[in-house]
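User
Here is a favour to ask of a fellow structure person. I am asking you to supply a protein in sequence and structure-token form. Please set it down just below, with no commentary around it:

Assistant
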Amino acid sequence: MRIILKVIVLISLTAYLIFAIVHLAHPQEDESCCAVNYIISYEGEEPPRSIVDQAFVANLLKEHRVRPVGKTLGAVNLRSIRNMLNENPYIDSTHCYYTAAGTLCVVVIPKRPVMQVVTSTKKYFLTDKGSAMPMKQYDLKLPQVSGEVSVKDARKLRPLLDYVAHSRWHSRVEGYRIDPKHGLVMIMRDEPFDVILGSEEDYERKLANLDLFMQSALPKAGKERYSSINLSFEGQVVAVRNKRKKS
């Protein structure tokens, strides 16, 4: 009899512990939301390169009149909040959940822009996933490409821009331009000449040729002598003299 009683007590305690754990880990729908915690996951990217921060997400909820605090958990539609945030052009994905204490956690992964594109009719960011994102008034100090650049064209430039960004050329290149006559042109920051690449193809060889030219020829002739350096021809560097300078 005592053994049976002990078994019953043990089963009752186990059932209570399971109930308590489940109850504490999963807040009930009739409990109230006590706070909202905005979590921005940059996935390794530094925040200054993203438009989305905690204030950005909080303002979106405010604009859509979503006020979870004080409402019962069952009255707050998490799917609706997630869908609303995911419709924003600067947000990649969203996840919402409640803590045991009744805090609503809104986890947002922003889209990651990698370049700014400026055409005659529009401005946009290209993201790391190859999609266009409106630029509006935002300036994230990203590499800029100007000219008539389609999203498809911008995607092709990613390897070149990534290569330059992680090399010693980073501080020497101001931006890029798609020229109707010369194709892809690299705009130098502190040089009086532009560098004509022609296309993004074989960029490592072209930049190696440019480096050799700048180290061997420029010190002798003087960089002010040239208006452009053309690397689009295979196996040669064509330096175009500045017409305002005497040869």
User: Anything to note?
Assistant: The chain has two domains: 35-110, 113-241. Residues 113-241 form a domain with the Rossmann fold fold (CATH 3.40.50.11690). The two ends are 113 Å apart (CA to CA). Residues 5-9, 15-25 have pLDDT under 50 and may be disordered.
